Amino acid sequence: MATTGDRSPAVTVSALASLDFALDRGSPVPLYYQLAQQLEAAIEHGLLAPGNLLGNEVDLSVRLGLSRPTVRQAIQSLVDKGLLVRRRGVGTQVVHSQVKRPLELSSLYDDLEAAGQGPTTQVLRLEREPAATDVAAALGIAEGAEVTVLERLRHTHGQPVAFLCNYLPAALIDLDTARLESTGLYRMMRSAGITLHSARQSIGARTAGAEEAALLDEEEGAALLTMQRTAYDDTGRAVEYGTHVYRATRYAFDFQLLVRP
Q1: Cα–Cα distance measured from residue 124 to residue 130, given in angstroms and rounded to the nearest whole number
Q2: CATH number of the domain at 99-254, please?
Q3: Are 211 and 125 a contacting pair, CB within 8 Å?
Q4: Closest by alpha carbon to 203, among 221, 229, 167?
């Protein structure tokens, strides 16, 4: 795909007009799906940036030699994914790319930064409390032992993408709000000499309650991805237990599956 080199939100139909769509009319893959995949790739790689307008469906259908329903179906599939939005009086506009995070022991902040997603953090809570039963079990400490509780809201491109809750043994590391809002927790742990070695992680899904919906700018009952992780250092000590929720419209885990010999 080609790009104009101008990725500012002011770019309108010219940004889309400069892209080279390769549609295989002999393929069993539906044309709307081919177009949707190529538009999604352009968004993911920054060729179509947040704020860019797609222009008129009629113009695009004429240019590509596709029917208007085919173009409309492609665009609607990306609207359903939350990558595009139809605005009255404005047109169809790029909102953001979906965060695709590799399933490995890494910091969400580092992953977002590496992907050019412009992460920002709002610390909602940083205090100490006695460990509840589930937290104590995850960290391998006595129930009621003191832990540091950290709650954060992570944003990309000014939009909330995840609510993060982490528990750490109280004596492990001193945390402060200013640093937590300028960098990632794992980066701070590494700077303190903690070597992260492995983790146990489970991924699930559920619907948003009223409080989570308000934090994540979603409707109550919207789908959320969930993740629980216990991270261990190179001595086998549990150093962090996290329970996180992510907007399903903005976030996906990326797996690589290998065949076992």
Answers
A1: 19
A2: 3.40.1410.10
A3: no
A4: 229
